[in-house]
Amino acid sequence: MTRPPETAHTHADHGGAERRELALLPSVARLAEESPEGGPGRVRGLLLRHRGAVDPDRLRAAWEQVRDRHPWLTARVEELAPSVWVLETGGTRVAGLAATPDDDPGAALGALAEQLDPFTGDLVRIALLRGSAAGGRADSTAGGTAGSGDAVLLVVHEIAADDRGVVLLAEDLAAAYSDPAGPRPPTGTGPDDCAEALAARPAPSAEVVRSWTGILAPGGAPSAGDAPGRAVATARPGSPAADGAAVVDVAVVALAAALRDTGHAADELVVDVQDGTRPDLGADLDRAVVPLAGTEPVRVTPAGVTRAPAGPHPGFDHHRFLDARGARELAPLGGSTVLLRRHPEPDAVLPIDWVDAVRVHGDTTLPDGLGQAGLVVDLVEHVDATTVVVRGGIGEDAGRVAEAVATALAGAAHELVATAVAPDPAEFAALAAAAPAPVRAVLPLSPLQAGMYVQSVMDAERDVYYAQNTFRIADRIDLDRMRAAAARLGAVHPAVRAGFTGDTAAGPVQFWCAEHPVEVTEVDLRADEDPAGALAAVLARDAEVRFSLTDPPLLRLTVVRTPDDDVLVLTYHLLLWDGWSRSRVLDDLFTLYRGGVPQRPRRSFAEHLAALAAADRDADLAAWRTYLDGVEPTLVTDGVRGRDLVVPEVLHAELPAALTGRLEAAARRGGVTLNALAQTALALVLGAETGRTDVVFGATVSGRPADGDGLEDTVGVFLNTVAVRLGLDPRRDLLDHARRLQDDRAGLMPHDHAGLGDVLAGRDGDLFDSLYVLQNFLDADTFTGFARDNAVTAMDYSDHTHFPLTWVLTPGPRIVVRLEHRPDLVDTATAQRLLDRFVQALRAVTTAGTPAGAVDLQTPAEHEARAARAAAAAVDVPDVTIAELLAERAAACPDRTALVAAGERVSFAELDARVNALARVLRARGATAETVVALGLPRSVGNVVALFAVLRAGAAYVPLELDHPDDRLAAILAESGARLLVTTTSVVDRFDGDVPQVRLDEPGLFDGIATAPLTDDELGTSAPGAPGRLDHPAYVIFTSGSTGRPKGVVTPYRGLTNMQVNHRREIFAPTIEAAGGRVLRIAHTVSFAFDMSW
Q: How far apart are CA 74 and CA 176, in angstroms?
């Protein structure tokens, strides 16, 4: 057994130089135990292909720089006893370039492999292969097209690095050659830190250990070895983007069947597999150049492939070779003599003067290097094919086995490239045939992508979901370098190579392609008489060119030469990446253009899509539907959008710095975010515009995990649109509204990934037509640095949505609000008024203690116009209430009949007395100014008495129409906030008992109650002459609700008096005069719950 990591120590070698013992990683511990006497010998080869000639001295200097950044690459093995190794720093430091007898990569790989010696620390060799011979011959072994440039062959012993580590090493070497003084990404850490991180993981569960035990049980070994054999076969198309475990499953099933068919295995076969993936040990260890990928045993039976359950444990190799208990449990079972290794296609991120990095599959095993494995199968993945290499003791049957595995991989390509959706073979074949480059993955759409895709394909003529970025650059742009940079961008962010199609049974999907040229067009305006006008025309034409969603890449660049500078125009479809990703894409594009190497994000957008697919959709939809239960649409427009997509027009408002400061202070004071304040302000505007008190609108959310989870720098469409609902209570403070909105949003954040279309499924029409966007990913300081680094003197950016109104708020020293409006649905004047009102609402939310009902959203211009209209139609409204006008009439003609109903006649004096008595009862029970009293009464004299009694008490009444359903009556009671309910015993069961009741037929209700006029002391703030008394609410009428939930409309006392004065002048007086002065009698036939009841 090897010694555990904690025994590492430092000591001096024979020459006196300090040497340090390194921890053994699990894969190295496996080699120590399985290697035959004389040492192990598997190596990995990677070919870096350059666009031109490579300078040997510069390459040598670059390698020395890289080697010094990774000192453990010179570690050497000391064998203390058979299968007991120590790994120490201080081995051979080979400084020069290795000589090779041939420029053929495969032959060179074999020659260099023989020079490696782990016992001296000679673990890496590099060689320079000259000209077209290197590139051209590499095609037969590595795939792809290299051109006529030189190539650098990197040969690495598996003690030094796994496949991922070799790619990282190649990236470092290419970057050091291209820009020796440039910045370098972190190197990760060495074996010690990786071993510590693995050891910190929990031990495998009993279930996992039982699985390993069952897999390694007797009966899975192939027959005894035959004569040595070696064969190569090619699977085309290959599976470079597939999940490693899926590729391995297909390959091992085919391998087992081929060995059974050729007489080398029985029905069951145990295979050690390396799928090419590493354990996720966090960002700090992600770039470690070490042999971190492990080996896992699987058992193939006629029923399929058995593997141990996944988990957070350190893996099989760690448990078997570095854990004493694991060794006792598993060592007696022995191991497999069949090894299958998947070598993922490198897809290295290289400077643009390098073509690519490809694996070389020459003789990658040193003499005696098969170790315990009697049969080794390598799956070497390239851009458009997978090479299957079979070596071991099966003689001439190696060719049949290789062909069988290759055929299986090619046949399963439609499944292997798909991470979360699997088009059938015919669909995949059609998709692959139409794609402009090899298809690397087929994936589902994120929720926002799904919505945008539908909108994008609705209109065959226009697609508004594009973004146009313009950069004025002081330096002249090198067209070839910009083309190379744009094409290489997909190596850093695979999602930018996406195309989209709806031609699958699974519905719309996205497919990611291999590297493909990006269209870069040059337009020369240097001789134009009006370059500014010509540039505007170029931008307008560019905006009109629609992307074909099935023909990626869905981005293009235009370089416009002007007399003074160059303008770079980057136009892309919004299906590719969201606003949060934009700055990363721009940074990386310009970094590549300058010759730098961006660091690849640790996690892919594909992983995020897989997580979305695995989410609990039912729970997500249930949460949203509970939140939106009972809400009615909030629509500024008529709710009918045309199918034709229209490019929005844009209005801007920049808030003063002082107002921005007050908003930030109000947010701190209220314990809410600026976002919550702004959304509350928007709810006020939309509520006022639509007459809604229960407001709903859309808002974008980042869609990324709150903890980052390795997706911070990942490019894709994470954003999603969610519904934001806010009930407006005129009596509650605005900050209370903001806190409630923020609390609701916090509770729904775990469900933010739910698709809006799914949430609103089953609804007729749109729920909202306003979208709110907080654009807090555009940081001024970040873009200042970007502009400085890239000689950018000016920048502009535009994108659009299909919503009639899109409100975009950008924080900063002076908050900027951009309102995009579709001119076919919202005219410019209306949009400007809404924007002005939003600014007014933002001012209102800064004032502490402001209730929602006290907010005045009208702008000074609107106030002036309103005042002018009022002045033009001004009439003198006396300072008297409608109830006081009744009292005057009763005093003038007390005995005249006032009411007739169902045989009952009531004089004016009797009516006035009954009103006074009931008004006193109501005042005693809390009916005063600014309170609401509900009237739930049959049509009768009592109904009229109650109505005037409420008005005489100074309160406001809300009539309840008994012909309406009980649930509508209950809703009006709740919405109005009624303090009292006036009713009768015959109908009281129609109402909820939570509201205090006054029953007109209650025995003794009026005992001892005076019928004389109420005194000023009794009326208080409602007494004649009291300031503002006519501005208090007189009644609330609820609409029919034909367009949604009924909403209440409040009429003040002044309006009611004005109505009576107007009726007297315009209707009653002319009618009496026309009748020769006769007394006017009116039949009241309309509902008291209707405004026309007056």
A: 19
Q: Which residues contact 510 (CB under 8 A, 6 or more apart)?
A: 442, 443, 444, 445, 449, 498, 499, 500, 575
Residue 301 near residue 268, CB atoms below 8 Å: yes
Q: The domain at 647-868 falls in which architecture?
A: 2-Layer Sandwich (3.30)
Tell me what the mean pLDDT of segment 257-280 comes to: 92
For residue 852 the two structure tokens come to: 């929602």
CA distance 105 to 47: 8
| DSSP-derived secondary structure for 51-108 | SSPPPHHHHHHHHHHHHHH-GGGG-EEEEEETTEEEEES------SPPP-S-S-HHHH
Task: Give the pLDDT confidence of 879-908 residue by residue, as tens digits.
Answer: 999 999 999 999 999 999 999 998 899 999
pLDDT for 9 equals 34
Q: What is the 3-state secondary structure (H, E, C) of 654-718?
A: ECCHHHHHHHHHHHHHHCCCHHHHHHHHHHHHHHHHHCCCEEEEEEEECCCCCCCCCCCCCCCCC
When mean pLDDT is compared across 19-23, 397-401, 435-439, the lowest value belongs to 19-23
Distances (CA, A) of 524 to 89, 564, 569, 969: 58, 12, 13, 71
Nearest-angstrom CA–CA distance, 518 and 497: 10
Q: Tell me the C-alpha distance between 323 and 307, whole Å.
A: 20
Q: What number of other Cβ atoms are within 10 A of residue 455's Cβ?
A: 16
Same fold, 438-608 and 647-868: yes
| 3 state SS of 457 | helix
The predicted pLDDT at position 261 comes to 93
Which region holds residue 795: left if phi is over 0, alpha if psi is between -120 and 50, else beta?
A: beta
Q: Which CA distances in Å does 342 have to 107, 158, 812, 893, 914?
A: 22, 14, 50, 105, 95
pTM check: above 0.70: yes
Provide mean pLDDT across the span 304-324. Answer: 93
Lowest mean pLDDT among 450-454, 465-469, 702-706, 1031-1035: 702-706
Sheet hosting strand 805-810, strand order edge to edge: 649-654, 816-821, 805-810, 770-774, 694-701, 720-727
Is 438-608 assigned to CATH 3.40.50.1820?
A: no
Q: How far apart are CA 377 and CA 398, in angstroms?
A: 10
Please check whether residue 97 is in contact with residue 60, taking contact to mean a CB–CB distance below 8 angstroms.
yes
Q: 234 pLDDT exceeds 80? A: yes
Give how far Cα 61 sits from Cα of 57, 91, 149, Å.
Answer: 6, 19, 20
Cβ atoms of residues 440 and 417 within 8 Å: yes
pLDDT band of residue 1079 (cuts 50, 70, 90) is confident
Give the largest CA-CA distance in the chain.
134
Cα separations in angstroms, 410 against 238, 239, 429: 6, 8, 11
- Half-sphere exposure at residue 597, Cβ-oriented, CA atoms within 13 angstroms: 26
Pairing mode, if any, of strands 84-88 and 76-81?
antiparallel
For residues 106 and 175, what is the distance between their CA atoms, to the nearest angstrom?
Answer: 24
Q: Could you tell me the residue ranges of all domains in the chain?
A: 5-416, 438-608, 647-868, 882-1093
Q: Span 882-1093: which CATH code?
A: 3.40.50.12780
**For residue 41, what pLDDT is reported?**
64
Q: Which helix (H) or strand (E) holds 592?
A: helix 579-593
- The pLDDT mean for the chain works out to 87
User: Three-state SS for 604?
Assistant: coil
Strand order in the sheet with 555-561: 519-524, 555-561, 566-573, 466-473, 792-799
